[in-house]
Design brief:
CATH topology: hpI Integrase, Chain A
Oligomer: single chain
CATH class: Mainly Alpha
Number of domains: 1
Strand content: 5-15%
Structural class: alpha+beta
Number of strands: 5
Number of helices: 4
Helix content: 25-40%
Largest sheet: 3 strands, antiparallel
CATH architecture: Orthogonal Bundle
Length: 154
């Protein structure tokens, strides 16, 4: 149209689609619901992930991309510096979409305690696995029992 190659604008004949209905608003767990959830999840391997998710409101990709270098035990904070996701079966690590996505989250005492225990357990598992510990999960806070990145839904 700008170059005067078309007599009419074909986009003017397109009917815009209707906006999809908005899903019901997500609702945060009440303190009592969160307490009951964590109590039920205590026996699962991903309990530390659940605690950190509830304590920091980090997204799943942020949690799965979290590395030990992002955890400051002395200051009681975690730094959100990356997110991971899968594209065509491959792991892709990226930065948060915006400057606001790069942030620090303050750790509540429970989260700090659980992360410390998780760090010790992970180090013990790594020593036990020796050469079988996966290199691609190096430094990840949340990894499989063999050090590989966690793949939700796989």
């Amino acid at each position: 149209m700008r170059w005067a190659l078309l007599a009419t604008n074909p986009a003017e004949r397109v009917k815009p689609s209707r906006a999809a209905p908005r899903p019901e608003a997500l609702r945060a767990l009440s303190p009592e619901e969160a307490r009951r959830f964590l109590e039920a999840a205590r026996e699962y391997d991903y309990y530390p992930l659940f605690v950190l998710a509830l304590a920091t409101a980090m997204r799943l990709g942020e949690l799965l991309g979290l590395k030990w270098e992002d955890v400051d035990f002395e200051a009681g904070v975690v730094y959100v510096r990356r997110s991971v996701y899968r594209v065509r079966g491959e792991w892709v690590e990226g930065e948060p979409k915006s400057a606001a996505g790069r942030r620090k989250a303050i750790l509540l005492p429970l989260a700090l305690s659980v992360l410390k225990e998780h760090r010790v357990a992970q180090l013990e598992a790594r020593l036990k696995a020796e050469a079988d510990w996966a290199a691609e999960g190096a430094g990840l806070v949340f990894a499989t029992a063999t050090g590989r990145p966690i793949c939700p839904g796989a």
